[in-house]
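Recall from the previous chapter that SMILES is a line notation for molecules. Here it describes flavin-adenine dinucleotide.
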Amino acid sequence: MRVVIVGAGIGGLAAALSLHAAGCHDVLVAEAAPRIRPLGVGINLLPHAVRELTELGLAERLAALSVATAELAYYSRHGQAIWSEPRGRAAGYHWPQYSVHRGRLQMLLLTAVRERLGPEAVRTGAALTGFRQDERGAVAEFGAEEVRCDVLIGADGIHSAVRRVLYPDEGEPRWNGLVLWRGVTRAEPFLTGRSMIMAGNGTEKFVAYPISGPGPDGRVLVNWIAERPLAEVRTGRGDWHGRADLAAVQSHFADWRYDWLDVPGVIGGAEEAYEYPMVDRDPLPRWSHGRVTLLGDAAHPMYPIGSNGASQAVLDGRVLARELARRPDPERTLPAYEEARRPPTTAVQLANRQQGPEVVMKLVHERSPEPFTDLETVLPRAERDEIARRYKRLAGFDPAVLNERASYDVRPSSRR
Ligand SMILES: Cc1cc2nc3c(=O)[nH]c(=O)nc-3n(C[C@H](O)[C@H](O)[C@H](O)COP(=O)(O)OP(=O)(O)OC[C@H]3O[C@@H](n4cnc5c(N)ncnc54)[C@H](O)[C@@H]3O)c2cc1C
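With both inputs in hand, we obtain:
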């Protein structure tokens, strides 16, 4: 069976590795960029995605370039602690949670794809321009060049060309009026040294977590995201490359100084920062049409909340590969894949529009705009607990459920 995957991002490359592990070795990954470069800043991989990459035999390589996140903590705009919970193994998962540089993760996956599927398996400079289907299969069109295949997977991100053919009237991604500025700064470790923190009030927010261990000077690379409403942005919707004006970003957060983190200091220490409007798209009623389907951001672009973008893309590929191995008739495979993956990812998309688990910062601000004296009267522990638990269940990483769930591996004894 010949499979063409459009897009060599985290989703497309992880899908290629998943297909290979499921016995499908005739895979071409077509990437529009002329060269794959380690772009982006930090992302988090939740334990459910780390499980899949572990079962793909990548545990050691992944551990070598990641920081195992130990704790997630939310703070009010005034720097008061609202919620903290252990993460990864410390929370009882069988797999860690990782903070990792997106580009380095992409290069890790690219290397593994080339090793396992051959040096020609990833073709760069190959932008899909269209496709068609006939009784013999699908035909992917790259300008004048055509590639025939049995299954065509659109893993081409939020501006997916595959999705555009399926839904020509959809238009631009939806912007919610918030802008994210993202950067990396060499800084002193904070809190546990492996903490992911968020401080905010529901409209303004600062996120920080280390994506490296300490260097010889004891400092770590801190990935940060500063977020607030803006009347207009200079960057296109869904463009990850737009440069930000660091001094302007810093001025918005000038008085966010806490005894556990100096936010303007962290922002000011970055060499550069990127601007990204907070965009997503409406959930689709259907991903699969004949022999063509969608995966990752092409299928379910979501706000970068709750660390789910890359993680859900990895899960998609694993489930698709499992279904392909179970019932290698694409007309049956793709609906089974979609049935397993569309409802949960739709739920995450919609939950992220309501701020996911981060809503605790908004609730505290609404109920106590000034610093609180007793958190329990503002947001009782039981309510905080329930918010955290509900999101984990919905996004598929409740520890008990994940630890007990059967593997997606079609060869369960291979590579743990
Ligand atoms: C350059 C870049 C930087 C990013 N930085 C961050 C970040 O810092 N933080 C964060 O949270 N998320 C970031 N993301 C998004 C994050 O990687 C995704 O949300 C998540 O990993 C799911 O990935 P995906 O593979 O579905 O989509 P993507 O990561 O968007 O990958 C899609 C791939 O498809 C390719 N492509 C697009 N159109 C075509 C076409 N017509 N033909 C062939 N190939 C095509 C793109 O070049 C890209 O390589 C970034 C994405 C990109 C592309």
